[in-house]
Target: Ketose-bisphosphate aldolase
Amino acid sequence: MNVQKKPSNVITLKKALEMAELHGYANGSFSPRYTSMILPVLRAAQKTNSPAIVQISHKELLRYGITPSEFGEEFYERMRSESIAVPVVLHLDHTKELDTIALAIESGFTSVMIDASEKPLEENIAITREVVEYAHARGVSVEAELGLIGTTDFVETDKDEELYTDPREAQRFVAETGVDALAVSCGTAHGVYMVKQPKIDYERLKAIRSLTPVHLVLHGGSGVPAEMVMNAIRLPQGGVSKVNIATDLELALLEALGRKERMTNEECNNLGADLLELGRSAVERTVADKITNFLGSKDGGAYFA
Model:
């Protein structure tokens, strides 16, 4: 996609996070997982006058049978057809493949995440720096990860291993990579909390922010109590500015459809019109609720005027 053709309100992650931190809310980074569910995410953002991030990860692209180009095309088509006016970021979440990052940038994504967190620190720094140089040259923001964030369903990540982010390593990592946002491991996990319960190490977040100005990202936002998240957002010197929400959206969709098993993207797109609208309404309500009661970003779109 030609950068010149992007709507002016499709912004970089860096700009979105700067405004979030300045005004004390967090951007919801919503993963619709199915292309037909991009629409309700955008509608909810527009109705609540909230900035939003629409994202999909490398593993989700594979699991649901979508290409970066297909996801990008649907996103921009819905931005136009719905006359979406609030600020929105199109973000590639957890990705280890440089080729996928390049395809996403070609498809109009304004932000990408390189996840080399399972590598030794030196290698993570080198890989992340390479992506930062490539993306920044094309006007695209970069998120990276330091420490290992656990998981319960393996849709977004490969391992259920957890290693909390070391603040001193974060200081060095940010200084040597120039990354725009950092996903940190501080107690949350991807997926549905069943046996393990969510927690947030606020002191660790404070320590990281005392050593680096980088914007912090909380992955595994689905299922975390709202009060816990708001406390992380409102930490002195700036807290979490981006919260990833994926599982809650899919659970809302499946419950509305009376299903338990995930679909492929093709299956979802081929639902009858009534079922599709039923699912979209459930996703829209979920996103609007998160914006209003979880992230504090309702009416945050006004800050970009």
In short: The chain has twelve helices and ten strands. The longest helix spans residues 273-295.
